[in-house]
Amino acid sequence: MSDDPLQIIARGPRVAAEAAAAAIDTDPATEGVTYSILEEDEDHDVWRIDAFPTTAEEAAALTAGLAAHPTLRVVSEVLADADWLAMSLSGLPPVRAGRFFIYGAHDLGRAPLNAVNLRIEAGAAFGTGHHGTTVGCLLGFDHLLKSHRFPRVLDVGCGTGVLAIAAARTGSSRSVGTDIDRPSVRIAGENARMNRAPARFVHASGLGHRDVRAAAPYDLVFANILAPPLVALAQHIKGALRPGGFVILSGLLRTQERRVLAAYRSRGFQLIRRIHRDAWAALVLKRP
Fold first, then answer.
1. Environment class of residue 181 by beta-carbon count within 10 Å: exposed (0-12), middle (13-18) or buried (19+)?
2. Percent of the chain whose pLDDT exceeds 90
3. In CATH, what number does 126-286 get?
4. Distance between CA 210 and CA 228 in Å, rounded?
5. For the whole model, what pTM was predicted?
6. Among 3.30.70.600, 3.30.70.260, 3.10.20.310, 3.40.50.1110, what is the CATH number of 6-81?
7. pLDDT tens-digit series, residues 154-208
8. Are 174 and 142 in contact, with CB atoms under 8 Å apart?
9. Which of 102, 162, 194, 231 is most buried, taking the most CB atoms under 10 A from its CB?
């Protein structure tokens, strides 16, 4: 693989696209790859996967994995030497998720007065608010806020920080976000300052960072990551929550919902709500 960034695109029916996405998540060679899956043409059942490998090994594994689904049409494109992510997101419309309204600089004049307005700019971090997983988390959070308050909130895999910022803007006095990607931590901090949200972000893998432990136990934990780490972190998340606390899980396809739910139910969690958005699922659970 050259130094030029590569995008691999696959199009085909929903069944094949979801199966391919599930394989990306479970294959050790590709489970860390950034990708998205969405419905491109509802009338003709065309779904699209956009994957962004960072190494030749990831690109080869992705190509081989997608080729195992013959109804998918797969192409690879070299991305231009530009801030392609910011360019692609700069024209996205604002998103309303319950009381939350997420927008970029190009929509400054459209923020409504009756919403919690969050300005999240396009950049090299996941979580502008447009993805089905982020919307699902915000909808689940909005529902909980109707009857609960969350003084201490943890956002595992914070990306742009939108979930931790949403918590800080709705009354959480301690809102902590973590990410394994240093640029994401920096971007999340910038977004928090721009939104005047008292949220703190740290570079960490897992829940062992001293700043994460210092604020525990939490009333609410967000984990919008991928299905395999959601399963692996189940016991750690339980340990970080106070009894009666809530967790909102996403980053998983509907086809992965049963596996993730089983890992948390085996630790005593109760399913409160499930939210489906396109092919994605968000789960709201409570620790008894």
1. middle
2. 59
3. 3.40.50.150
4. 24
5. 0.72
6. 3.30.70.600
7. 999 998 999 999 999 999 999 999 999 888 899 999 999 999 999 999 999 889 9
8. no
9. 162
